[in-house]
Structure formats: C-alpha cells, structure tokens
Amino acid sequence: MPEKKTLFEKIWDAHLVAQPAERSPILYIDLHLVHEVTSPQAFDGLRAAGRKVRQPLRTVATVDHNIPTEPRGTPITDLIAAKQIAALQSNCKEFGVRLFDMDSPEQGIVHVIGPELGLTQPGMTIVCGDSHTSTHGAFGALAFGIGTSEVEHVLATQCLAQQKPKTMKIDVRGRLDDGVTAKDLALGIIGQIGTDGATGHVIEYAGPAVRALSMEGRMTLCNMSIEAGARAGMVAPDETTIAYVKGKRFAPRDAEWGKAIAHWRSLPSDTGAAFDKVVEIDATQLCPFVTWGTNPGMVAPVTGRVPELSRLRDAERRAAELALQYMGLEPGRRMEDIGIDRVFIGSCTNSRIEDLRAAARVAKGHHVSAKVRAMVVPGSQSVKRAAEQEGLHRIFQDAGFEWRESGCSMCLGMNPDILQPGERCASTSNRNFEGRQGRGGRTHLVSPMMAAAAAIAGHFTDIRNWKFQ
Amino acid sequence: MNPFTVHRGRVAPLDRVNVDTDQIIPKQFLKRVEKTGFGQFLFYDWRFGADGKKNPDFVLHEPRYEGASILIAGKNFGCGSSREHAVWALADFGFRAVIASSFADIFANNSTKNGFLAVRLTENEVARLMQSALEVENYQVTIDLEQCEVRDDQGFHAKFPIDNFVRHCLLHGLDDIALTLQHEAEIAAYEARHPAVERG
Fold it and tell me: Which pTM does this prediction carry?
C-alpha cells in the first residue's frame, strides 16, 4: 500500500530538488512575491555577488507597505519611503522583474493581489519577505514568510535550504454561527493554543466549518496562522478553490487547465495520513471575539470581560499586567463597555471584497459615532473597483467612513495612516502589538462586521444583536 | 557571514515573554535600504520616551548591563513580523546571541543567516540565567557552539539543540547561496521538468 501523505507532505516532496547528506533539503520555489520593504538589501546582495534573478517569470513585485492611501498622484512626502519605492522600481527594471507599481490597476497588498491575479495556485510553494505569506495557504499551497537573506537566496537560486517543519491538523467541527466569521475562528484558535502554539509546524485546517468557508474566509484564517507561530497554514483545495482560480489572469488555461485541476484534486491529505499534532475546535462554541491585550492570543468573547489576572499563571500574568497597563484597561471590564476612537477596516487579513461587503451590510443606513474616525482601505485596486461597482463606497461614505486607496496602511502604520498615542482602535488587521499601529496606539483585533458595528456604536458591540437596515 | 564559534560576554536580562519584532525594531525604521545602522533604533519605544529622551529605567540603559553582548529573554522571542531588520538591529547594537526557551521560526532562521545565535535552553535554565543576570554583578556566560553548550563561572552549564547543518554554516561563516548553487545541475534538471510559463 502506498504511503499515506498529508497535503503538506505531497507538496514538500514534489518540490525537493536535492537532499544532500548532512545538510538541509533544498526546496524549489514556484512563486516569489516581492515588496519594497524587505527586498532592497537582497537586490544589493545580488549586485555585490554579481548574481542575477534566476527566474524572473516566477518573481512578481508590488508596492504596498509604505505607500500613502491618499488619492494616487499625491506626492509622497516621506522621503525615505519614496526612496525605498524608487529602489524597488529600479531593482525590478534592472533585474527584469514584473512590478505592479503604484499607478498600476493591479496594485495592492501583495497577499491580496497574488490570489486575485491567479498567481497563487494549489500545490505551489510560495514565499515572500513577509510573515503573512501564510495567506496563500488557503489555496492548498505551501506558503511561508522569509527574511531578507532568504529573499536574496530565492532571487539567486529559486530555491531555499529548509528544515522540514512538523505538521499540525486543526479540525474544526460543526458550523460557525451567523455573525461568527473566519476572523473569529482564527482568534478563537490563537486564544486556545497561544501565539506560539504552532511554532515549528505547518497547520492544515480541516473539518466542516473550514470547508464551508469562502476563499476569502480561508485566506483570513490562513493569514493568521503566523500569529499562532505556525510556519504556514493550509486548506486542502476543493471545488470552492477551483471555482475561484478559474479564469484569473495568470491561471492555467485551455488544455493546461484540465491537467492542473486533475493535479489539484490529488492534493488533499490521504485518509488516515498522520499529523505530528492534532487540535480539535468546536465551531459551535465560538463567538465574535475582541482582543484585549498586546498579542493576538489575548482575546475574549465580545460578551465577556477583560480577564481577572488571578486566573493566570506567572509569566502570563506578568505579560497580561504589562499588556493591560499599555492598553489602559483593568481586569473585569466588560468588552462591550470599551469605547473606541478609531476604526480600521483593511489589511491582508480582511480587505477583500467579501470583507467589505460584510462591513457595508452593517454600516448601511447607520452613521459612524461622532467621536470615531473610521477608514476603509481596500486590499487592492481590483477590490476597490469591484466595491465601487457594487456601490459599497457610497454606503461607507454615507455612513461617515473614509474610502481610501489600497495598501497595507494602518495595519502597520509605515505610511501616514497611524494612531496617535492613547488612541483606541477597532482593527480588522492581524497584530495588536505595542505600537504596531502607531506609538502608544491601542489596537483591538476584530472581524470586519464587528469593526463596522463598533464604528457606529462607538464601543464594541455584539454583531449578533445588530439591527441591519 | 562572520563565523560564530565561542563567545563570552556580559548578559542583559529582558524579562518578558513574546517579545515581538515590532518591539525589537519599530516599523518607522524599516525604510532604510541598507543593512547597517539599525542598532540605534533597537527596542526604540522601550528605550526612548515619546519625546525622544532616553528611558533610564530600561534594562539596556542600566550601567551594569552596558556593553552586554548576550540577551536573555522569555519564551517565543522574535514573534510576529518577518523583518530581518530585528536581527540586524540586535547585532548592530552589539549583541552576538539571544538566549530564550523558544524562538519564533522566522526570527531563528534570520539569525542563522547573520552569524547571530538564537540559543534555546529549557525554561528552568533560562530562569536560572535570568536570576543570575539580575543578581550577579558583571554576570558573563560563554556560548560555545563547538560544544553546543552555555556555561558560566558559577558552575552552570547546559547543552542546547541546534540543527547540524546550521551549526556547520555558523561555525565556518558559510554563504548558503553558494552552497545551494553547488546543486546547479539538480536545480536545472528540476526546472527542465517544471518550466516557468509566461502568462498574463
């Protein structure tokens, strides 16, 4: 009987170029996504060593991290950011790499445009100098973030020397309730296993609740894998995946398409394949979540309270004390009593068309609280256009949300979109680290619906009780 | 890459768990296009007030930890963003190694590419070293990559795990791009079987 393999093992084995004795295996990389922040030093390294980009066709670049979300054409006033963008432009030109530049109709967050252009496909190995590369695992690809030295390595060799990670299956039983989204599932998982719960592992998300997710939902879930410490997160490809990829600009066509989908259908883990670790989650027990602390594992149900410190163990308790001090919160505070100043709907976690539709449905017929400034930042120019065709921008603007150009924006505040010290933000992004959205800024991670509802109510509120207009 | 063999140095204790790379080097300093000069921004929001003034209470500003070249910290060090700037900042500040009970994968990977050591000890061993760094004046340890051992003058010694190949590269300061390119024939053969397609 042939060996039973997991989805991860099938992709790993198919991409092994060499397994030298006493060394790490060498893995072939099908797609390398590049952005302005983590690549300049890598291109410099190539130049210094007299090397070329080995596979320009497998390398795609865009600008996303530090570009302003003001209307395009507004000059970039941050000169160092401008220099970094100019460096990517000249590097792409010099090394023959395709760049979806600022003025491109395809520009967007690297993890949004890969899938929507059909660059991301099942069975691929995908890397990018960005930890949220795990997003692409939603397609049943092995996708992980790397540092700049490895960016240079892939540019030069199209390979990476990698130690084989372990496997973890997260089996999500049951169905998510209305109002409980992929984001809540991700936060619920991280709250349970911790921010280092999956370190050294590649997660495969399985079970009926995962199968029922749209591709956008799967991308949100896989995106947050890194927040549990995972090397990557994956969902086996199925008909939902195939339907999404079909007809995309870079997707296989004609005779190739038939071959591709036959291959993709062979990728799901074999029945009975063994994982190093298995975690079971009961989807019916999950609810809309809000983070209260300074890492994504510090999370509570919206109907709950900031935890009492006496219930936590030593190191965790100290960490929670520091977190609450930073967040300006006290133990026992009801989550729904926490008022907010800012709302950010965007980021590679939650800026796709489905996220914007969900938020718009909440916003429709309401108005943002007078004390809140709320912004919507579509993940890409394509998402922005699609939303505008559906009239979502009008709903947001009528409700008092700002409607901006695409980019990473306030997820990490490398561009001018930042929180002021002490400002409290309901954010659909992925990290509530100290200072992440701006020094002294206080970030609470939530789903797009929960963010829109908080913008209108002025405080967190349970979306399951929302009065949709 | 500079080789790492044996290093002895002063230990600074950073008694926090889950130190993320946003803390190690905040985003506003990631816009440089060079690998150098990041040390001045290390732990910026902890080291400096909003007014830019030095925070004298932060551990790295205590005179007794001046010149420390080994950092000891709580579990899951280097979590979050993949920014290699975190390692560049630690190294540029003067650190050669971090000791913790666990590291985030990408941070650990980035370390090895820069001749910088992420040393994993058990929680008990880390707690003991943390205690010594807090109590013993000019506390120093030796990190011996040849023996895969951390030891001090008070009789502490502990082995640490490290991948053999990673250790080999660190000991000899090897350029791993050149090592991969030794497999040019195999890479070319793989590419012949899986050609890149021009689309779009």
Answer: 0.97
pLDDT of residue A1: 62
Q: How far apart are CA A444 and CA A294, in angstroms?
A: 9
Do A37 and B16 lie within an 8 Å CB cutoff?
A: no
pLDDT in tens, A231-244: 999 999 999 999 99
ipTM for the complex? 0.96
Structure tokens at A26: 């060498």
Mutation target for B interface from A41, A65, A106, A263: give the one with most B CBs within 10 A.
A41
Q: Which helix (H) or strand (E) holds A315?
A: helix A314-327
CA distance A456 to chain B (A): 30
Query: Three-class SS of residue B179?
Result: helix
Band of residue A73 on the pLDDT scale cut at 50, 70, 90: confident
Measured between beta carbons, which residues in chain B are less than 8 angstroms from residue A148? Answer: 35, 84, 110
> What is the chain A residue with the closest CA to B106?
A146
A226: pLDDT strictly greater than 90: yes
CB contacts, 8 Å: A99 with chain B: none
CA distance B85 to chain A (A): 9
DSSP strand pairing (B6-14 vs B70-73): parallel
Of residues A388, A392, A396, A407, the one with CA closest to residue A347: A407
